[in-house]
Amino acid sequence: MSAVPSGVIIRPARPEDAPRVARLLALRGISVEEALEQAPRMIAALPVLLLASLPADDVELAGLDGGASQPPKLDAIDPPVGDDDTAAPIALSGAFLLPGDLEEGRPERWMVSGLIVDPGARSRGIGRALLAAVGVAVQEIEPGEDLFSVVETANHASVAAHLAAGFKEAAHVDGYAGLVFDGDALLMRLPGAADH
Question: What is this structure's pTM?
Fold first, then answer.
């Protein structure tokens, strides 16, 4: 597994993390209300959903305590979450089992559900570490299974994070499992433990 950057905590998202997950979902341009509706469903539905956080003291040191990197105002509803109740969410990723499709000739496979990294936390290895942790979590559920991800080729940072986490290019695609992309995309594969 890739080294986790200093001070970063990566752990499974819990139901009480819904406001933290919503904060990160809102970075994708959806409304706060939509994010707050989606977060609990996402936590309940995804077999793997990992949250990366920084303790509040580290957020200030890392320069993540202001500016455009701050998501919409959810502070008033952000409840304490035990030992890390002051941790600030900085990234989110997960995985799900995509059913196979005989017409497309696609077998059932594990897919990355997305990668969200706070803009102020980018270029620090957090996305790479989070993707690697998702791969480990999938291996714990189904040892030897590959993990796949579809990344738009224009998203150079995401492609680089996937490559750094051990993903390999599997194919160029313009659509996948019903998703259509504006431009070229890569189907990327993190080999299961049997292939290492």
Answer: 0.82
